[in-house]
Amino acid sequence: MHNRHFVKEPWGWKIRRFFKAISKKLNLEITHNKKLEILKKKGLKIGKNVIIDKDAIIDSNYCHLISIGDNSIICADAKVIAHDSTIHLSTNHHGRAAKVEIKENCIISVNAIILPGVTIGPNVLVTAGAVVNKDIPPDSCVAGVPARYYGKFSDYIAYHNKKIAQDYVFERIEMIKDKETFKKEKNKMIAEAKKREIYYKTRTEK
User: For residue 113, how far is the Cα from the chain centroid?
Assistant: First the structure.
């Protein structure tokens, strides 16, 4: 009698599992794109080349008060909120709402929260976990709760571009198909990250 752990899986099962994984991924992408289309129909303004992560939250009921400028990025679990109902128990069930304007070339990082009534940018980095409760002027980097200015965005980019030009840049590791190359690159990344910050490509060359 064969132990079932040593019985080869039928090819039919492998193919079925492969197509199931592909369809799941496509379904997620379709659902995300559909969600954005619905928000745009409801009044959300999105510029050109905007990236909104599928796990970002855009205030769906008040999205008509939100605009996101060209080349901006809204990262995973970031929240863009245009209304506030916290006062409703003390104001005979009234809430407040205000516009949110994220201008061109802004990055809203992971878990950042954008509150009602603020204008951000252009050219602003809101770091991970920051809470923006007031306007952020152009060419700024902000961090903290509440978010505070700590440097110029242009200086921040210039610093990293200089380092990238001088440093070894890792490939986008999840796109490496060859197992040996993947292993070598991963081990090198681990070793280098123990000594310093490292740089990697966020997209592959076409």
Answer: 12
Alpha-carbon gap, residue 60 to 39, rounded angstroms: 7
Query: Domain check: are 194 and 140 in the same one?
Result: no
> What's the mean pLDDT in 62-78?
96
Q: How many domains does the chain have?
A: 2
d(CA 115, CA 97): 10
Can you tell me the mean pLDDT for 11-28?
Answer: 64
**Domain range spanning residue 66?**
42-152
φ/ψ of 12, rounded to 5, equals -60, -40
First to last CA, the chain: 52
The residue assigned the tokens 């909120």 is 81
Average pLDDT, rounded, for the chain: 88
Global pTM reads 0.79
Amino acid at 64: H
- Residues 81 and 182 placed together within one structural domain of the fold: no
42 band by pLDDT with thresholds 50, 70 and 90: very high
